[in-house]
Each structure stands twice: as C-alpha cells, then as structure tokens.
Amino acid sequence: MSSDPFMRTYAPRRQSYSQAAARAGVGTRPASTATPPSDLLAPYMVTEEPYYRPVADEVDLYEAAYSVRMPMMLKGPTGCGKTRFVEYMAWRLGKPLITVACNEDMTASDLVGRFLLDASGTRWQDGPLAVAARHGAICYLDEVVEARQDTTVVIHPLTDARRVLPLEKKGELIEAHPDFQIVISYNPGYQSLMKDLKQSTKQRFGALDFNYPEHDIEAEIVAHESGVDIETAKNLVHIGERARNLKGHGLDEGLSTRMLIYAGSLIAKGVPPLAACRVALVRPITDDPDMRDALDSAVTTYF
Ligand SMILES: Nc1ncnc2c1ncn2[C@@H]1O[C@H](COP(=O)(O)OP(=O)(O)O)[C@@H](O)[C@H]1O
Ligand SMILES: [Mg+2]
Q1: How far is the CA of 128 from the centre of ligand 1 (A)?
Q2: Best mutation site among 257, 260, 262, 265 for ligand 1 pocket (most ligand atoms within 8 Å of CB)
Q3: Mean pLDDT of successive 10-residue stretches along the chain, which has 303 residues
Q4: In CATH, what class is 18-209?
Q5: What is the spatial distance between Cα 257 and Cα 225, in angstroms, rounded to a whole number?
Q6: Domains of the chain: which residue ranges?
Q7: pTM of structure
Q8: How far apart are the CA of 122 and the centre of ligand 2, in A?
Q9: How are the residues of the chain apportioned to helix, strand and coil, as percentages rounded to the nearest 5?
Q10: Which residues of 225-242 are buried (b: 16+ CB within 10 A; e: fewer)?
C-alpha cells in the first residue's frame, strides 16, 4: 500500500535463483522471446530473473491467461508476493513491464497522457497506459482501488474485445498492441463502500488469489530474501502466524511476508532477534499497548 512505511527503501536481494528454481521445478523462459517489441520499451524489460517461489499453480494459470491476453486481477493482502509475481511473470514471458503505483491523486491523464508545453509549442506525451497499449507491454496498476473510480473506467475499453484506448484530448484511438496485457492488484481487506472496484470493472478481469504462503514455503522465502538461516526463518514465520490470528481481534491486517523479511534482514545484519522483531514487526503494525504486549510475548516465545 502507499502507506507502507518500508516500501520505498527496501531493495530485494537479487541473486541466483537456480537452486530454488530447481527445487520448485520451475522452468526457464525461452530466450528468443525476450526482446522488447520496441526500443522505447527496452528500459522496461526485466533482464534478471526475479526470485519467485511458486505457491500453487499460479504460474501456469497466468501463462494461460496471458496467452489469451486476459486482463488479470491479483487479489490479496499487502506484502504477500503480488508485485514480485508480476515481475517474475514478465521476465518469464520475456515481455516489458510498466508498473504504475496508484494513488488517490491520480487522474485519468496520469494514465493515458497529456499535452505538454515546451519551447516549440504543445506536444503530446503518452502516459504509461498508452505507452503499454501502443508498444506492447504488460501494464501493472498496483493497488488500483487507491485510484478514483473515474480513473479506473479509462481501462474499460482496453479490457473488452475492442482492446482500444481512446485518447480523447488528442482525438486518437489506440488499438492495443498484440503483446499488451493489463494487470491490476487489489487488497480485498481494504475495501470499503467508498473504495471498492465497481462490478463493471471487476467483471472484466480474471483473478488469482494470493495469500501468505504455507509455513515451510514462507520460511524458505524469508530465508532466501533476508539471508537468515532456515531455523530463524521458521521462527519468524511462527510469529507471523500468531499475529495473523489476531487479525480482526485488534489488528487490522496480518504481519506480511515482507515484514518477516525485514525482521530477518536485521537479524542477518547482527541485530538481536528481539530488537529486530520489535522494530520490523511489532511497532509498525500497532500503536495499541496491549496489542504490542501480546505481540512481544509471541516474539519471546520463539527467540
Ligand atoms: N512467493 C514468493 N516468492 C518470492 N518472494 C516472495 C514471495 N512472496 C513474497 N515474497 C517476498 O515478499 C516481498 C513482498 O512481496 P510483494 O510482491 O512486494 O507484495 P505485494 O505486492 O503483494 O504487496 C517481496 O519483495 C519478496 O521478497
Ligand atoms: Mg505490491
């Protein structure tokens, strides 16, 4: 979410994925597909394989969805792997990925484009959605409910059989490139009457459910991403599971995989586990003193 305090500063470790891939039985992409449809999209190519640990059949399902260019919605709580999954799929399919972090100030022009004034007069500049549709990229609208509803309707003509994007101000109709696909992410936990997708938007997408992975898989992810040993990672996951049981009983949202990775990263840097868990897990998620006590005692059970 845009309110996530860590999002801007955390750089995931990018390192060899071959062992994890071999364990998970994940194939590699055919190299010949990994060329951008146009030079303009070269910066959006995912050149290094992102570490992604498949949880169920989401990789196959997404590949099938992409093969028919079905618009996709990734549903699930924050920090459970949605963004990483899209990066991985873009790499695997060899397609450029344009990511837009949606926020409430975003307007339709921010997505489709606008006229700019420069020395020689006015000049049209495509927005990210128009670039993706025109040149053939996967366009990922992250946390799309954050955007105002009038913004989300601009994606409608791209998500039905027409696959077009009208640039009304410019008087142009972009016919989407054959490689273009739209993907949105959506956290059902944050939905409210004011902030939910319209049915007319929802029904244009196929959906994949994401959640915190099962214990051993989550521990594997935490160990890989943070650099802690697997036993420490398992303890962190136990704490995460305890905290998730408090969701709805004083906690609005469970501890995410992302937070467990932060705690692990601090431990891997030599921070004592209790302090690491307070900083990365307990303090960010609640200000309630009783809830902090309950979480602290979950931490001391495992460290
Ligand atoms: N299945 C997974 N495989 C690899 N890493 C994962 C997985 N799930 C979560 N992660 C890790 O958790 C972090 C947060 O995931 P992210 O994709 O940013 O969450 P979301 O987009 O759902 O909020 C990622 O940076 C990655 O390190
Ligand atoms: Mg995300």
Answers
A1: 23
A2: 257
A3: 36 37 48 72 96 97 98 94 97 97 90 92 95 97 85 89 94 97 87 70 93 97 98 98 90 92 98 97 94 94 96
A4: alpha beta
A5: 10
A6: 18-209, 215-302
A7: 0.88
A8: 35
A9: 45, 15, 40
A10: bbbbeeebbbbbbbbbeb
